Amino acid sequence: MAATTTATTPDETLFERAAGGLHIGGIPAGRLAERVGSTPFFAYDRALITRRVAAVRAALPADVHLSYAVKANPMPAVLHHLAGLVDGFDVASGGELRHALDTPVSADRISFAGPGKSTAELRQAVAAGVTVELESATELARVRELADDLGRPARLALRVNPDFALKGAGMRMGGGPQQFGVDAERVPELVAEITAAGLDLLGFHVFAGSQNLRADSIREAQTATVELLLRLADTLPGPLRYLNLGGGFGIPYATRDTPLDLPGVGTHLADLLATRIRPRHPAARVALELGRYLVGEAGVYLTRVVDRKESRGTTFLVVDGGLHHQLAASGNFGQVIRRNYPVAVAHRAAGPTADAPSETVTVVGCLCTPLDLLGDRVELPRAEIGDLIAVFQAGAYGRTASPSAFLGHPEPVEVLV
After folding, report:
1. Neighbours of 116 (CB within 10 A)
2. Which CATH number fits domain 46-296: 3.30.420.40, 3.30.460.40, 3.30.750.24, 3.20.20.10?
3. Rounded to 5 degrees, what are φ and ψ at 289?
4. Largest CA distance in the chain
5. Which residues form the Orn/DAP/Arg decarboxylase 2 N-terminal domain (predicted)?
6. 159 with 139: CB under 8 angstroms?
C-alpha cells in the first residue's frame, strides 16, 4: 500500500491565503470560479509571473537576453503579459508562431526550433523574418528553396546536439543520438554549406535538457555548452551574433524537491560571460530560454468535487477534472515514479480546522480509467461534494500538454488574473 502523503501547497509566499481560503490574483478561489462560470479551469496569477521574471532578471547578468519558451504555456493572454517582461519568444510550431507574432515582440526576437517543421511552417517563419533554428541538413535545403521563392533572406541559427548529456535533467534533449539538432561533429560541414550558399547564419543554439533542480548540473552543462559553441564559432565566416544556451531550469513538484539555487546559476553564468564569451564575442546576443521556470508555479488547476465515496477502506474524492486537462499531475507525462503534485481544498487552503479535521483521501478525475489520479492517499481537510480542489504547479504543460479530447469532456477554461 502506498504511503500517505501530506498535501501541501508550494512556497507559502506564492499564493495569498485569507480566512483559510486560497486567493489567486487577489481573488478568492470560490469567487473566481463563479466569475469563470464553470469548473474545471486553469487560473494563472499575473503578479506571480511578473515576480518570477524579476527574480530571474536580478540573478542573471544584465546582458543576457531572456527568452520565453512558448510551449510551456501558449495562452495568448499569458504571452501578451510576458511580451512586456522578456526579450523574446521561442516557438515550436506554426500555431505558436502566429500567437507570438500577435504580441508586441518583434519578429527578430522570435526563434523557431523543433525537429519536424513542415514546409508550410518554414515558409511562415521565413516570411515573418524570425530566426529558424535548423535541426538538419534537409531542413536547410528546404529553407534555401523557400528563401529563394519568397525573395527574402532567411535568418538562421544551427541547433547543436552536443557531445555531452545534462545530468539531473527530467528530460534529456542532447547528447548521444537525438532527433534534436545537428550532431556537434557535423556542424562545421553544415556551416560551410550555409556559407557557400550566401545565407545569413547568426549563431548557435543548444538545449541539453529540461526540469533540472541541480544548480551544479546546470553550471556544468553551461560551461560545456559555452566551450563547445566557442569552438564551433571559429568555423563561422563572420562574427558570432547569437548564442542560445538553452535553459532547463526546474521547479519543485513534490515536498522532497529542493528549489533551484538561481543565484548560484546566475553567478556562474556571469563568470562565463566575463571570462569566456565577451573577450572573444563582445557583440553576440547571449540568450537563455526558459518556459516552465517562468510560469509553472504561477498556475492552479481548480476542479470541483462531484462525488465522495468509500471503497474498502479508501475514501475517494471524485472531481469534474482529470488527466485530460492536467496529464502531468496524474503522473503520465514523463514521470518514472509517480509523485503527488501539491493539492489543497481551496476554501481550507491553510489546513484543517476543528470542524474540518484532516483525512486521508485519494483524489481521482471523472474519466473511465484508473490512470486518472490527481492525488494518491493525500492528507486534506475534509471535503464535501461541491468543494473546490486546487492542484498547484499547473502553470506549465497543463491544458495544451494533455489529451483534452479523451472521452469527449469539455475543454477547460483558462484565465489570467
Report:
1. 11
2. 3.20.20.10
3. -115, 105
4. 76
5. 47-295
6. no
Rounded to an integer, what is the distance from CA 271 to the centroid of its chain?
26
Please name the residue that has the C-alpha cell 510560469.
295
Model's pTM, two decimal places?
A: 0.92
Residue 167 pLDDT grade (very low, low, confident, very high; cuts 50, 70, 90): low
From CA 332, how far away is CA 328, in angstroms rounded?
6
Name the average pLDDT for the chain. Answer: 91
- Going by C-alpha positions, the residue among 71, 65, 25, 68 that lies closest to residue 48 is 25
DSSP-derived letter for residue 409 is P
Q: How far apart are CA 257 and CA 251, in angstroms?
A: 8
How distant, in Å, are the alpha carbons of 97, 132, 181 from that of 144?
A: 20, 11, 18
Which grid cell is 218? 546546470
**Residue 5 has what pLDDT?**
47
Q: Which three cell numbers stand for residue 93?
A: 510550431
Find, among 269, 179, 261, the residue nearest to 222 by Cα.
269
Q: Please write the tens of the pLDDT for every residue from 125-157.
A: 999 999 999 999 999 999 999 999 999 999 999
* DSSP calls for 72-131: G---HHHHHHHHTTSSEEEESSHHHHHHHHTSSS-GGGEEE--TT--HHHHHHHHHHTPE
What are 114's strand-pairing partners? none
Question: At a CB cut-off of 8 Å and minimum separation 6, what does 59 contact?
Answer: 262, 263, 265, 266
Predicted local distance difference test score (pLDDT) of residue 13: 53
Class at the top of the CATH hierarchy for domain 5-45+297-416 = mainly beta
Residues near 411 by beta carbon (within 8 Å), at least 6 away in sequence:
399, 404
